[in-house]
Amino acid sequence: MANELTEQKKVGLGLVGFGILFSFLGILLFFDRGLLALGNIFWLSGIALLLGWRSTLNLFTNRSNYKGSIAFLLGIFFIFVRWPVVGIIVEMYGCIVLFSGFWPSIKVFLYQIPVFGWILQYPILLINRFWGSSG
Q1: Of 30-34, 43-47, 117-121, 126-130, which gets the smallest average pLDDT?
Q2: Where are the transmembrane segments (predicted)?
Q3: Alpha-carbon 78 to chain mean position
Q4: pTM to 2 decimals?
Q5: What are phi and psi of 123, to 5 degrees?
Q6: CA geometry: angle at 8 spanning 50 and 114, to 5°?
């Protein structure tokens, strides 16, 4: 089965989770350089294990993804040379550009989450319900 979670994908998912956790803690603790670097290393290795080495290489070296790849790797470089604020900003831009092809799939997935999906689909109804239509 193609979508089956193998042991390698489970480890990759765990590494991505740790990468996000360490990056979040690094930002929360005033851009701690060590935590941000660990978060990047865990996240990159987790993506490589989740997608596979060849697919990850194709993702980063695809001609349409050069701008995102360069921005992401430049952000990692800035973190390593002690410019964590600039590095995080450049990395976030790189991630958005690099994974822009996945946004439609992410949107469909988020719409299927029970309460969160309804909030995303009907934000105007939610605003009217909380603040009421005062006239």
Answers
A1: 126-130
A2: 12-31, 37-60, 72-103, 109-131
A3: 18
A4: 0.74
A5: -70, -30
A6: 55
